[in-house]
TrEMBL record:
Identification of the protein by name: Fe-S cluster assembly ATPase SufC
Single annotated GO MF: ATP hydrolysis activity
Matches recorded under Pfam families: ABC_tran
Organism of derivation: Methyloraptor flagellatus
Keyword ATP-binding annotated: yes
SMART domains: AAA (SM00382)
The keyword Cell membrane is annotated on this UniProt entry: no
Name of the encoding gene: sufC
Length: 252
């Protein structure tokens, strides 16, 4: 599904390279955790996958189902079924949450050659998903994320994910700053969305989130490369030993 090969990347205005030849392959149904010390390039990787401006790929490739992902604009990536959840969800003043969700869903449908969803069907879909996440009518009517608490923003993000039904979900450090209840919302939401045709890349510094979302594979990112890969036990080892042995480690 997702194939990253020899990815090198930097910040557009700077010379310093941040990712130095990163390789990763994610198949449908899999959950991959990417862990690593602060500053190792985790967020840079998620921004590159999201198509954020300011970041520049200098070498290597990223494909989604064989198609060049880097060639697509950010909204085209979303339409292809790539969903990114960031540490700090954006607030969109003036745009009602419902309106935003419907626009996002219809953009995705049009890109797939499908017609817009009917209003009754959309309302039914959103109500069903919102109820499961304890999202109130009020939260659906308010501007996207404006005045939402940290936990509400996270629930809203899971709602977006549930409505858009992406095939690849990338979560960057969604656990930092979350209290235990919000953490449960995120992990329960992700677990409910796990399916054989959907994959997750969960990027986190802490092992905590992985107590609730059990990954199939764990990778250690250090200095812009994946230096080690293993199963869930690798996360526990990192929790026990920290990242000390990976600081300064070059990829094998
Ligand atoms: P992580 O998410 O693993 O903590 P980041 O991808 O945020 O790592 O950062 C990787 C490296 O790139 C760090 O050395 C960081 O200081 C640098 N970096 C990230 N974003 C920027 C930016 N916008 N401008 C300059 N340096 C940056
Ligand atoms: Mg960081
Ligand atoms: Mg980060």
């Amino acid at each position: 599904m997702l194939k990253i090969e020899n990815l090198h990347a930097k910040i557009a205005d700077e010379d310093r390279e941040i990712l130095h030849g990163l390789d990763l392959e994610v198949r449908p149904g899999e959950v991959h955790a990417i862990m690593g010390p602060n500053g190792s390039g985790k967020s840079t990787l998620s921004y590159i996958l999201a198509g954020k401006e300011d970041y520049e790929v200098t070498e290597g490739s990223v494909t989604l189902d064989g198609e060049d992902l880097l060639d697509l604009e950010a909204d085209a990536r979303a339409a292809k079924g790539v969903f990114l959840a960031f540490q700090y969800p954006v607030e969109i003043p003036g745009v009602a949450n419902m309106t935003f969700l419907k626009a996002a869903l219809n953009a995705q449908r049009r890109a797939r050659g499908e017609g817009d969803i009917s209003t009754p069907d959309f309302m039914r879909l959103v109500r069903e998903k919102a109820a499961a996440l304890k999202i109130t009518q009020d939260m659906l009517k308010r501007p996207v994320n404006v005045g939402f608490s940290g936990g509400e923003k996270k629930r809203n993000e899971i709602l977006q994910m549930a409505v858009l039904a992406p095939k690849l979900c990338i979560l960057d450090e969604t656990d930092s700053g979350l209290d235990i209840d919000a953490l449960k919302v995120v992990s329960d939401g992700v677990n409910a969305l796990r399916s054989p045709d959907r994959a997750f890349v969960v990027i986190t510094h802490y092992q905590r989130l992985l107590d609730h979302i059990k990954p199939d594979f764990v990778h250690v990112l250090s200095k812009g490369r994946i230096v080690r890969s293993g199963g869930p036990e690798l996360a526990l080892e990192l929790e026990a030993n920290g990242y000390a042995e990976y600081v300064g480690v070059e990829a094998a």
